[in-house]
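Field reference: sequence -> structure
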Amino acid sequence: MRIVHFSDIHAGLFPRSAAALTDKRLLGALNYLLRRRHACRPERVERLASHLEQLRPDWVVCSGDLSSIGSPEEFALACAWLRPIRELAGDRFIYVPGNHDVYVRDQACRRALAATFHELNSHRWQLADLPLAMTSTDAQLVMIPGAVPVGMLRSSGRLSDNEQARLAAILSEPRPAGAIRIGIGHFPPCHADGRPLGARRALAGADAIFEHLTAGRLDVLLCGHIHDPFAYALPNRSAVLCAGSLTLTGSFLVLDYEPGQHWSWQFHHVDTD
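Structure field:
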């Protein structure tokens, strides 16, 4: 079983709505136009599609931040960028939102996110279904929420008490014999050296995810949020694997697993590999 994992493509457009110029979207749009736009290379998404033809993954996973300010126009742009990947992956494409996808409480933005989530996940689930698990013969993929609107100058998230309870219930159920259990969420519970993220960027409830990894109820957490890729291995051989940003750094991750054996991973770069 092979998974290709990427994250944080950050499609960006300056908002057309006057209302967007009165809230957090103005700051986010200016950040994109003045800083991130110059480093963002959308052609790397198409390059990943050419890699998929050679890698032939069973699943393709995107762990969030399709957009910069969560606008309907940005979701449409991101879906256009992703079209070559989705044509290859078909219904084996999985997307979990990131904090930039849930940027503000604006209803038009929330409707666009809900529609994008439904479409990219082949119309199988709604946002309210998270957390949820999808089980195959050799893997159980657990989709973990956490992206919520937060205040200015924050990029944090929250896993609510209800969501933590539902996640614990999923992970308490037995998995198929020999199957690997992989969490998919936007926020890493730690940095590359194991330190927790600072409050401004962290997921409230990340300690619960870390406990599931420590206890072996999760074997791997695939995540994004941090734009440089990293891997953090726990003593029990569970791991946090952050893909980094595909468009900003060119990184993506390949995870391989043979039933009954230990899994392995490797970071790749679309421009050099």
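Note: The first strand starts at residue 2 and ends at 6.
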